[in-house]
Design goal:
Helix content: 25-40%
Distance between the termini: 36 Å
Bound molecules: guanosine-5'-diphosphate, zinc ion
Number of strands: 14
Strand content: 15-25%
CATH superfamily of the largest domain: P-loop containing nucleotide triphosphate hydrolases
Oligomer: single chain
CATH architecture of the largest domain: 3-Layer(aba) Sandwich
Structural class: alpha/beta
Strand order of the largest sheet: 9-8-7-10-14-13
Largest sheet: 6 strands, mixed
Number of domains: 3
Shape: globular
Radius of gyration: 22 Å
CATH topology of the largest domain: Rossmann fold
Order of helices and strands: EEHEEEEEHEHEHEHHEEEEHHH
Number of helices: 9
């Protein structure tokens, strides 16, 4: 595993910004501590001449994304397109619920603005506002609206997620091409110099269990972007499974419900375990656009939980 050295010990400053090829300490493997891309690690047994070392420990992760597997992600970009394909409210809701459930800040972005008229853009802006979101609109193709997004990503580690065809790969390429890496920044320089190990790779492997059927192992790398941040070179899932969202947690992932609960402070729903299905004393009304999606997802989670 390649490890980027952010600082060097006193007297070794000439190695600042160096990279090391590291093995993972056997003990860590034994206790199944996986080292993820984006992890902050303690490196020992460093051989500066050979640029080798050993990962001794993995520091606690602030956040963790499963697909693609990246640790310490600061922000998600939820990417959809206004046309080809058009946004589907149910899919949009699934992605929003999943993003909300990670606890990682995210920005909702609509791509391909040049394919639609101003009315359509206004329509989606208003509709998203009523859901509790304030999206960005841009066109990767026309290179319009990208700078607002770039500013937002400065200094952060970002992962792009969204359904297929909306322009995730295109956006990754645009953000990396638009980069204006400071020459003085040793880490960026280093990553650039070593860009050969930063390309996307997809490796088909044969499943060990069945011995047949290919599944794809995804190798993710972090690309440097303008302003000192990193971007995962592999976009995330096509359909979030929502397996980590609980029945009780689901309500928390809807800004509309959060708002209704906040407006009724301090008197919340009568029952502490209210899931807002019209229970007695429930303060969550059913007169909002996404209530049917909330109910559908609640059913899905109930069924899943009943099998657990
Ligand atoms: P992904 O599946 O989300 O990674 O999407 P891709 O990046 O592969 O893009 C899917 C298709 O959308 C490609 O044909 C892109 O050229 C096209 N595309 C990406 N961005 C734009 C855009 O801003 N406008 C238009 N019209 N097409 C775009
Ligand atoms: Zn309630």
């Amino acid at each position: 595993m390649r490890v980027i050295v952010g600082s060097a010990p006193p007297g070794r400053e000439q190695h600042l910004g160096g990279d090391l090829l590291c093995v993972v300490r056997a003990l860590l493997k034994k206790i199944r501590r996986r080292v993820l891309v984006g992890d902050r690690v303690l490196v020992g047994a460093v051989d500066w001449a050979d640029r080798r070392g050993m990962i001794e420990d993995v520091f606690e992760r602030r956040t963790e994304v499963a697909d693609p597997p990246v640790a310490n992600v600061d922000r998600l970009i939820l990417l959809f397109s206004l046309d080809q394909p058009q946004p589907e409210p149910a899919t949009l809701t699934r992605f929003l619920v999943d993003a909300e459930s990670t606890g990682i800040p995210f920005v909702l972005v609509f791509n391909k603005v040049e394919l639609v008229d101003d009315q359509t853009i206004a329509y989606w802006r208003d509709r998203m506002k009523s859901w509790g979101y304030d999206p960005l609109f841009l066109s990767v193709d026309q290179k319009s609206g990208l700078s607002a997004l770039e500013e937002m990503l400065e200094g952060q580690t970002t992962v792009i997620v969204g359904p297929s065809g909306v322009g995730k790969s295109s956006l990754i390429n645009a953000l990396r091409r638009n980069q204006n890496i400071s020459e003085e920044d040793p880490i960026h320089k280093l990553v650039e110099q070593n860009s050969k190990w930063f390309g996307e790779q997809r490796v088909g492997t044969v499943s060990k269990k069945s011995g047949k059927g290919k599944h794809t192992t995804r190798h993710v790398s972090l690309l440097p972007i303008a302003g000192g941040g990193f971007l995962a070179d592999t976009p995330g899932f096509n359909q979030p499974s929502l397996t980590k969202v609980t029945k009780k947690g689901l309500a928390e992932t809807f800004p509309e419900i959060r708002k209704m609960l906040a407006e009724n402070e301090p008197s919340k729903c009568l029952f502490n375990n209210c899931v807002h299905l019209g229970e007695r004393g429930c303060v969550v009304k059913g007169d909002w656009e996404r209530y049917p999606y909330y109910l559908q997802l609640l059913d899905e989670i109930k069924i899943r939980e009943s099998f657990q």
